[in-house]
Amino acid sequence: MSDADAALAVIGGTGVYQLDGLDIERSVPARDTPWGMPSAAVTAGRYAGRRVLFLARHGAQHTLAPHQVNYRANLWLLHELGARAVLGINSVGGIRADLPPRTLAVPDQLIDYTWGRAGTYGGEQGRPVAHIDFASPYSESLRQRLFAAARRASIDLREGGSYGCTQGPRLESAAEIERLRRDGCTMVGMTGMPEAALARELGIDYACLAVVANWAAGCDPNPHPVTLQEVQMHVRTAGAGIAPLLRALLEAG
Ligand code: HPA
Question: Residue with the nearest Cα to atom 2 of ligand 1?
Fold first, then answer.
């Protein structure tokens, strides 16, 4: 199969290690790129009749922490396989009151608090230094297609505001989240960057589908100790909306 016309590539985050509804035609083994090894093999197949690629960001067994993910290799391989649009699925903590656990949201802005991650293709491998326009970090056309698909499929998809990307892998202190809130962040995750910027460098239409797994530190209106079990349950519940959303997105062409 040629993936030259892949309609969409999906990068799955925490809790999304395969793409429900993808009719898998082949698996492309993880292979060395000029930027090193990607996180996992890419599965290629059909979703609602369209060619779709899937890659698990943290590896098939979730062995890579957010700062260990080779974002450059992941996007390079997907681009090489024909992806011109990429949807990054990212689990997040909700900061804004209308982003409680189990919500799906699409942000339109981001703030990068990460450090030390390889965040550009420019200036290496003989490539020119890149100063991409990043005023609107996500593809507005892909975002609007997602909202239209959500309306058609009757899925509650929130206009998510600003994604704050922290270094992790630990969660944040309440004071750190308070600072993010003051900065205008409405949600917090660890994997949105440099993925979005690298996609822009490659000319890929990129959007983020945020899955709210928990209240960010200090934001729970009924504070109680958060268990891993509870977080996983929230991701599973919210994740149930991903397949119908993707189906509606891809059916629309
Ligand atoms: N903080 C950062 N990343 C996250 C969180 C969080 O609370 N929940 C899921 N990913």
Answer: 189
**If pLDDT is split at 50, 70 and 90, which confidence band does 4 have?**
low
Q: Is the pLDDT confidence value at 239 over 80? A: yes
CA of 249 to the centre of ligand 1 (A): 26
Asked if pLDDT for residue 123 goes beyond 90, the answer is: yes
Q: Residue with the nearest Cα to atom 6 of ligand 1?
A: 93
Range of the domain at 143: 3-119+132-251
pLDDT digits (tens, 9 = 90+) for 32-52: 999 999 999 999 999 999 999
Q: Is residue 221 part of a domain?
A: yes
The pLDDT score that the predictor gives to residue 34 is: 96
Tell me which H or E stretch contains 146: helix 140-152
Task: Tell me, yes or no, whether 124 lies in a domain.
Answer: no
Tell me which residues have their CB closer than 6 angstroms to ligand 1.
91-93, 166, 171-172, 188-190, 213-214, 216
DSSP string computed for 180-239: HHHHT-SEEESSSTTHHHHHHHTT-EEEEEEEEEEEPTT--SS--PPPHHHHHHHHHHHH
Domain count for the chain: 1
**17 lies in some domain:** yes
Q: Whose CA is nearest to atom 3 of ligand 1?
A: 189
